[in-house]
Amino acid sequence: MFTRRMFFKILAAIGAGSLFSAESEGTAAQWLNVSAASSTGHLARPGDTYFEVPAQAFGVTTTEQWENLLDDLDAVELIGRYVSLTSAPDEVSRLTGRCPFCRHGADSLLVDSRDDTYLCTDCLAGGHALDFYARMEGLSLPESLRSVGKLMAAGVLQGKRPRLKRFHCIIEAIDRFAHESLICSREGASARGWLNHQGITAEMVEKFSLGMMPYALSDQLLERLRAVGFTPDELEQAGVDGWMSCLADRFKAGESNSTLLLPVRDREGDCCGFYEQSFGLESALAWSSHVVPYGYQLLAPHRANQLVYCTTSGQTVPSSVVLVEHPWDVVLLAQEGLHQAVYVSPLDLHEYHDRFNRFLLQVQRGVWPIYSSDLSVEFMRNLCRLSPHGLERVAFLFLPDGTGFSEWLRREGPVIGRARLEDALSATELLRF
Ligand SMILES: [Zn+2]
C-alpha cells in the first residue's frame, strides 16, 4: 500500500523538485516498482531499504506542499468519481461500492474515509486512494500525484479543504469569545489582575489575542457557536464537545479554572488551537501546556509540526530568533521589547529532533538560552544528529544557573541583552571544544 513513509523515501531518493518536471526513465521505473509492490499489499515497515536517503536531501517547503496535498485528498470524493459509494449504516467513515477491478459483489469495495484507503474483499485489491487513481488511469504514482494536484488546484476536486476551513472558523470564533471573556467578563477579573501583576499591558493582551475559557461560560460559548451557524455535528467533529466535558471534569474535580489561552496561527494566518498558561497567583509560571490541549491535535501531525508561536502569529518568522522554553515566554519577552522570541516545542532535542530540524531550515539563526550544566554527553549526541544546515544555524547563550531567560533579560536590560544574543556561541564552535 502507498504509505506516507514510502512517499518520503521516494521523495528523498529522487528529490521532491523532480516531481514537478518530467522524471527520468529510471525514476519512473522506481515509482512503478513501488506501485507494483503496493498492489500486492506490501506495507512499508521500519527497516525497509527501498530508498534510505537522509531527509535533508529535499526541500522542506516542497515536501510540505506534497504532504498537504496528501492530507487534503479525500478518498471518498476521488474514488467516488469511478464508483457509486454508499455509507455503511453502522459506520459513517466506511463506504461500500462495486469493485471496478473484479466487478464481483455489489458492495465488495470498502473505502475508509479516515485514512483514505480502499480494499476489495473479493479480489483483495487495496491501498491508498492514490493507488486506486493510478490504477484506474493507468498512470505511474508521480504522474497520478501531479494529476490529482492539478485537479485540486483547478477546484475539480475539493478534497478535505472545505472541512479544514470550517474547523479554522470554529477555532477563530472560540478565540474571539475567549478574548472577550478575558477583557470584559466578571469571570476574567482574576486573570486581568494576574496579567497586571506580570506587567502585561492591555496592548499586549490585544496583540496576542489572549483569552480565557472558564467552565462557567461554556454554555454561553456553545450558544454563540450555534447562533453563528455551526451545527452540533460540526462542533462535535471539531472537538468542542470533548473540550467542554474536559472543562466540566476539571471543575468537578475541584481543579483550578485559572488558565489563559494563547491562540496559535499557521503560516496562512488561520487559528489552529491554543496553548494554555496557568495564572494561579502562587504558581506564577509553574505550569504551562506544551502540547496544545485542544484544536491542534485534530490537525494532521505534519501540519501541527509546522506551527510556531511568535509575535507575528506564525505568518512570518523573523530570520534571527531566540528559542524559548514556554509559549508564555514569547509574550513576556515581547513586553520587554524583544519581538524575536519563538516557541517551537519543548527544548528537548531527543524528543523533538525532527521538529527543530524542520524549523531551523526556515531561519538564519536560532539562539538557544541554556545552562552550562545542560551540556551532557546525551545533549551533544542529539545536537550532532541535527542536519548540517540545522547545526550551522544554532547558537547558544549561557545563562547563570537558576535564572530563566525572561528574568535574565529583565535584569540585563534590552541593550545588553541584545548584544549578548549577538555574541552567542555557535553550535559548530561549541562542538570544537
Ligand atoms: Zn475486487
Query: What is the spatial order of strands in the main beta sheet?
Result: 9-11-10-12-13-14
Radius of gyration (CA) equals 25 Å
How far the N terminus sits from the C terminus, by CA atoms, comes to: 48 Å
- Strand portion, in percent? 5-15%
Report the CATH superfamily of the largest domain: DNA primase, catalytic core, N-terminal domain
Largest sheet: 6 strands, mixed
In total, the number of strands is 14
Q: CATH topology of the largest domain, what is it called?
A: DNA primase DNAg catalytic core, N-terminal domain
Bin the helical content.
40-55%
Structurally, how many domains make up the residues?
3
Shape designation = globular
Which CATH C-level class of the largest domain is it?
Alpha Beta
- Bound ions, cofactors and other small molecules, one mention each: zinc ion
Low-confidence stretches: 14-59, 283-293
Count the helices. How many? 20
